[in-house]
Amino acid sequence: MTIERILKRTAVGGAMFAAALTGTAHAATCGIISSGTTSATVNYDPFNPTGLGATPITLRLQRVNGSGGEKTNIVNFYLRAHDSNANGTVVVANSVIVDGNFSGTGLDVFYDSTETPPVVAPTSVDPSGGNKFLKIAFTGNNAASDIATVNFTVQLPPNLDLTNSPNLSFDAIFACSTTGSGSPTQQTGQITNAITFPIKVLNALQASYVGSDLAFGEIGNIANPLVVTPPSTSAVNNYVRVRSSGAYKVELTSANGYRLTYPTGNLAVANQRVNYQLEFLGTSRTESNPALISKTCTRAGVPAGEEDKLYIRATLREGGQGKLVAPDYKDTLTVTISPLAVPVAPVPCSGLLGP
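Below the sequence we write its predicted structure tokens.
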């Protein structure tokens, strides 16, 4: 008995969206947020072995001004993700267009969760190779001076455990100073999703079969009707391995309706077929119920350590005695795995076997 391994590795992209998410400054009345992009959306497939190479992205950054007339005049900031899943990302500001001054171009201003953050306060601190951040000094005191256009280069390594999404946002950790409306101030803060890049994380997956054919070995000496206790089963360590950045759908079909036969055998003739039972994804199928097995599964995760293991096992329902003697009684099982752009009530699938 063999399994035909039709296992798809697919990347499905849905609609692409320009990114213009904003955050809310907490206690600080100054800072900086994304206000738009002039770059087209690019796709990131976490299973592409080359990752996302150095990609130029131009963002408009808008300074945060207080409601009492105070203006952000200097902001020092660096970027971080919400968790460790984006570790290894590189974000470099190559140039800045602003009514003012800037420094820190050419430096990687993204910090992994394990990296020691830079010193950004007070705003008189300047960036360097050992203290990497971007510094923007606004000199104007009018609406036209609120925007800085920054040309970034973003690079993502392969296998980042990012959930599929229409854009990629990072938090800005900053120090800022203000002028106007009384005495100058020095402030620090963090704005969630302050900087949003038009990078679409694809719903992608990888799948493979791990183990051996679902083989029963020699069954000619097993009585029919079946009297073996326990009945003959395939090995229990066979499974379909899935890694995915989003939800996915699994379908399994049997070419012979869960019956073994030899190449020229006739499934309609009782002594030319051997019935068996299959357990997969919490479902059991036999020749009396050969319906499609179909299940929508929750996101498996991208790293190998987070893979889903979809176990599969076959059990004889008949013996081989009295059957026509022939080699290679077998059936072909086809497993199809597809990423889903809009999943419908997905459930955890890893580790499921029979009902």
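The CA atoms of residues 218 and 320 lie 8 Å apart.
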